[in-house]
């Protein structure tokens, strides 16, 4: 496997590159060729690596290590059959070489046979005293298999071998998060920080775990330590801003977001966060200024356009909101979030035809959220298309078959249509499923909720639930 890349080319690499520029042929030891090939592989210069392998094998045709590097390149380029034939030959010469098992595992992994890859990597562990790279590969294979527990265990071993292996540390935390074991992640990171108290990466990850658990003072302290360890750590300032925002400390949050803008090129996400802080402070002009900066910095950021649209929507300026959501749609007409917001705006403007079109497009683009179906049906009711409303709710029931809110809504619409039979059936089903949901029915259809026969159904349902 490739070594870590060097900061500057060694004498062997300089000599090799000089040879390539002339017609001269220089002799190198096999170890020199290995160093040269690793250098090119680590820098993504595969063509030069292949040239070094070819010349190296001409000078050292019996070198197993050079042949294994040839296999590595073949696997990288998906020449798997050729690589397997070469591995068969090498295994006859050196059956205890762990790199042979590793490369076979890479081939199986490329073929999506991760169980076989794991078995070969386990075999490789039997033939090496340096198992760091193998545990890293095992961790990745277990991730492919969605076995986050075993993946976590292997990445933990990598961290125990090298506590500066931040890639493995990130993977350990990722596994904890996927398993929703945030307490386990906190314990692990605190234990790690006892040994590495100045590791900004670990402090940053610890803060994120506290943030997930809504332990905001602890999260803030962790991000503070991350900043102390590295005062140019942009991620820590940004996350610290989010915590301060949650704590209602908007001025301090703004200061941290602005720090990220000073340390690196401005980002749309920072402008968006600053705008939200100003809006929460009631400073609408500064909020608008930063929202506009958001979409100027990244016109494709859907959150930016949506937050401007929502800003005007909340102010009741629906025409202005419509103007900005249309600008967003001109940039990305296939974004269901834009169409959904468009539906809400048209509804507020009582433009039910365009509201209906917008919600239909939202569904067509794959947004099947419950409130999308309910809002679309509500538009049909407002437009006096009761049969369409029932059809929409029936479609929604395919995605939410147990949703009592849909059943109550259908009951009310049946009754508005004068269809007391189906209205009664639907209402009885809804009351049986969730008696408390009747309060919402009462708000939406007050003209029916006080009728004697409805009150009798409610009373009977209460008696049944008590018994």
Q: Give the helix level as a range of percent.
A: over 70%
Structural class of the secondary elements?
mainly alpha
Quick one: overall form? elongated
- CATH structural fold name of the domain at 317-401: Serine Threonine Protein Phosphatase 5, Tetratricopeptide repeat
Total of helices: 28
Poorly predicted parts: 1-7
The CATH architecture of the domain at 317-401 can be given as Alpha Horseshoe
Mean pLDDT metric: 90
Q: What's the CATH first level of the domain at 317-401?
A: Mainly Alpha
* Beta strand count: 0
Order of helices and strands: HHHHHHHHHHHHHHHHHHHHHHHHHHHH
- Sheet having the most strands: none
Specify the CATH homologous superfamily of the domain at 317-401.
Tetratricopeptide repeat domain
What does this structure look like?
This protein is an all-alpha fold and 467 residues long. Among the domains are: 317-401, Tetratricopeptide repeat domain (Serine Threonine Protein Phosphatase 5, Tetratricopeptide repeat, Alpha Horseshoe), CATH 1.25.40; 404-467, no CATH class. It has 28 helices and no strands. Helix 9 (148-161) packs antiparallel against helix 10.
Topology, please?
Layout: H1 11-20, H2 30-42, H3 46-59, H4 64-76, H5 80-93, H6 98-110, H7 114-125, H8 132-144, H9 148-161, H10 166-178, H11 182-195, H12 200-212, H13 216-229, H14 234-246, H15 250-263, H16 268-281, H17 284-297, H18 302-314, H19 318-331, H20 336-348, H21 352-364, H22 370-382, H23 386-399, H24 404-416, H25 420-433, H26 438-444, H27 446-449, H28 452-466
């Amino acid at each position: 496997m490739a070594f870590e890349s060097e900061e500057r080319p060694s004498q062997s690499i300089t000599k090799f590159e000089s040879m390539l520029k002339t017609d001269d042929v220089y002799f190198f030891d096999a170890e020199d060729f290995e160093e040269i090939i690793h250098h090119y592989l680590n820098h993504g210069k595969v063509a030069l690596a292949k040239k070094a392998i070819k010349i190296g094998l001409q000078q050292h045709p019996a070198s197993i290590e050079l042949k294994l590097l040839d296999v590595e390149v073949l696997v990288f380029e998906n020449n798997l059959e050729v690589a397997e034939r070469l591995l068969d030959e090498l295994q006859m010469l050196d059956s205890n070489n762990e790199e042979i098992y590793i490369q076979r595992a890479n081939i199986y992994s490329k073929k999506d046979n991760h169980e076989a890859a794991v078995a070969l990597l386990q075999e490789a562990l039997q033939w090496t005293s340096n198992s760091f790279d193998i545990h890293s590969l095992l961790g990745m294979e277990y991730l492919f298999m969605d076995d986050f527990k075993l993946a976590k265990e292997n990445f933990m071993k990598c961290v125990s071998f090298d506590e500066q292996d931040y890639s493995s540390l990130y993977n350990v935390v990722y596994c904890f998060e996927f398993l929703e074991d945030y307490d386990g992640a906190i314990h692990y990171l605190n234990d790690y920080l006892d040994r590495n108290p100045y590791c900004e990466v670990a402090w940053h990850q610890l803060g994120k775990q506290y943030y997930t658990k809504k332990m905001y003072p602890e999260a803030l302290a962790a991000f503070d330590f991350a900043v102390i360890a590295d005062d140019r750590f942009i991620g820590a300032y940004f996350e610290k801003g989010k915590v301060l925002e949650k704590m209602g400390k908007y001025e301090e949050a703004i200061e941290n977001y602005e720090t990220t803008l000073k340390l690196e090129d401005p980002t749309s996400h920072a402008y968006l966060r600053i705008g939200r802080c100003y809006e929460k402070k009631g400073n609408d002009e500064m909020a608008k200024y930063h929202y506009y900066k958001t979409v100027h910095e990244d016109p494709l950021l859907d959150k930016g356009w949506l937050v401007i649209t929502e800003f005007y929507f909340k102010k009741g300026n629906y025409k202005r909101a419509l103007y900005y959501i249309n600008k967003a749609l001109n940039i990305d007409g296939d974004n269901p979030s834009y169409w959904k917001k468009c539906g809400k705006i048209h509804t507020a403007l009582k433009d039910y035809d365009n509201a209906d079109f917008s919600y239909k497009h939202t569904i067509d683009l794959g947004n099947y959220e419950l409130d999308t179906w309910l809002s679309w049906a509500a538009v049909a009711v407002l437009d006096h298309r009761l049969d369409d409303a029932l059809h929409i709710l029936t479609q929604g029931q395919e995605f939410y078959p147990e949703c009592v809110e849909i059943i109550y809504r259908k009951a009310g619409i049946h009754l508005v249509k004068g269809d007391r039979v189906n209205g009664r059936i639907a209402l009885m089903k809804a009351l049986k499923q969730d008696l408390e949901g009747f309060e919402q029915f009462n708000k939406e259809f007050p003209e029916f909720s006080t009728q004697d026969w409805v009150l009798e159904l409610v009373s009977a349902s209460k008696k049944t639930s008590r018994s």
